Amino acid sequence: MSIKKTSLNNLHIKYGAKLVEFAGYQMPIQYKDGIIQEHKYTRTHSGIFDVSHMGQLFISGGDDLTNDLEKIFPADLKKLKINQSKYSFLMNNKGGIQDDLIITKTSDGFLIILNAACKYNDYEVIKSKLDNQYKLNLDESLSLIALQGPEAKNVLNKVIPGCNSLKFMNGNNYVYNNKKIYITRSGYTGEDGFEISIKHSDAETFVESLIENGSKLTGLGARDTLRMEAGLCLYGNDLDNDTSPIEANLKWAIPKSRIETEFVGSEVLKNQFQSGVKKLRVGIKPDSKVIARGNTKIYNDKNQEIGKVTSGTFGPSVEHPIAMGYVDNSYSTVNTKIFLEVRGKKIPANICNLPFYKKNYVKGEINV
Amino acid sequence: MSEVKYSKEHEWIKLDGEEATIGITKHATEMLGDIVFAELPEKGSNVDKDGTAGVVESTKAASDVYTPVSGEVIDTNQMIVDDPSKINEDPEESAWFFKLKIKDKSEMDSLMNKEEYEKFAKETSA
Q1: Which CATH number is B85's domain given?
Q2: Nearest-CA residue of chain A relative to B31?
Q3: Taking CA atoms, which of A29, A229, A271, B5 is between 20 and 30 Å from A129?
């Protein structure tokens, strides 16, 4: 299979991107400024991310759609207002996570944003569970651009007037170049920001206009360090088919109203809600400057293996190594001393609260 | 006059009598990106040609640093441990990694000169 390119590929090259293959797409890992500068610019100003590799699945048709989707996803879709978004999961029967996703209610159905590496499988799974009763469109004619950072609202409002009145986890239709675009106030960096769904043919000029207004292109490298500082999970690293939302410490994303109801994996989740879980995702802060990457083994003070790291890096804004991973539940309390095996040495570390970097979502306008 | 040579692992080595100063090349730092961690060999330890003698990490990944020649570690550069970003800023001068009292000068013979290294770096990164 040949590597796919997004509509912004020429722009990435123009701005000096170092390109890598990610989930079948040629994507920018960083531009000329490098990961740390791009990370810091997003935290202090605003960064533009090409996330067009992610799936945009539109589902419509039929009065029972909301009911039928609630049999798949553990979200409270009946309570969702038009243009409101929720973070949720596609699970298997064992309660393991097949993908983490964002569901937005649209005027004629739902829009689900899927991870790039999972999107085709998700499409097949969802389609078969819906018994082919509805119209499903994994729309590959649309680009997806994220604009993140404290200045994102000012930059975007110059290009799309009025969009800064959007509330967090809400979306709406706007017009760009006489065409409809869809914008949600969301993101995955721990900053205020937006995700813009736009026709491929308009994506390049749209991004150029964001750059003209002071924003900078930011690669997947900084996206990874930003999400880790914000304590957010990356599917494939921190979440997988053998890990449930409860184990992943994402219990907050399962509304109480859904716990007693049926959905894929509900039996396992209900059981875990009642009896607890064996392993739990935690934040980890090494005592020293040593970085513990994914798959680093975690030990207790008796040299017994108690878990493993799933993501780890140096946090450019917290200026310290950070990691997250899964430990035996009895070691999940904050300030528990643990040891990370890096290059044969046991590095002391502590269980700590997530996020590492305090969230900076729109203040006073939060409507989660 | 001191002689500078280069290894295929992208280290540079400057020989002054029996004392060699070793670091990583500018080309290596460009491939690695922002360096956020450096680990150096212990002073007084012995290192063998082509063996691991340190680690550098970028935000993305860890990479071993090898020694192009054998010898005893007589000094290490604490500056780059305290502030690893110095390696990106000045890799071939102030951000050296360690100094060796070298064992066998002839180990220098198989290394590349500047011209050869530049050609090698260009070919391998293409």
Answers
A1: 2.40.50.100
A2: A18
A3: A271
Q: For residue B41, with 0-12 CB atoms within 10 Å meaning exposed, 13-18 middle and 19 or more buried, which class applies?
A: buried
* Domains in chain B, number: 1
Between B36, B39, B81, which is nearest A314 by CB? B36
Q: What is the pLDDT of residue A165?
A: 95
| Cβ within 8 Å, pair B59-A35 | yes
What integer best gives the mean pLDDT of chain A?
95
Q: What is the pLDDT of residue A368?
A: 35
- ipTM of this predicted complex? 0.85
Asked if residue B52 belongs to a domain, the reply is: yes
Residue A319, min C-alpha distance to chain B (Å): 9
- pTM equals 0.93
Band (B126; pLDDT cuts 50, 70, 90): low
SS3 at position A231:
coil
> Domain containing B87: what range?
3-121
> Would you state the pLDDT for residue A131?
86
Which of B60, B78, B85 is the best substitution to test chain A (most A C-beta atoms within 10 A)? B60
Report if residue B126 sits inside a domain. Answer: no
Domains detected in chain A: 1-230 (3.30.1360.120), 278-352 (2.40.30.110)
On whether residue B31 sits in a domain, the answer given is: yes
Q: Which helix (H) or strand (E) holds A89?
A: strand A85-91
* Residue ranges of chain B whose CB lies within 8 Å of a chain A CB: 33-34, 36-37, 39, 55, 57-62, 81, 85
A35 vs B62: CB contact, 8 Å cut-off?
no
Whether B69 is in a domain gets the answer yes
Chain A residues whose CB is inside 8 A of the B56 CB are none
Gap between the Cα atoms of B12 and A213, Å rounded: 43
pLDDT of residue B124: 85
Q: What is the per-residue burial (b if ≥16 Cβ within 10 Å, else e) of A182-215?
A: bbbbbbbbbbbbbbbbbbeebbbebbebbeeeeb
All residue ranges of chain A with pLDDT < 70 are 1, 359-368
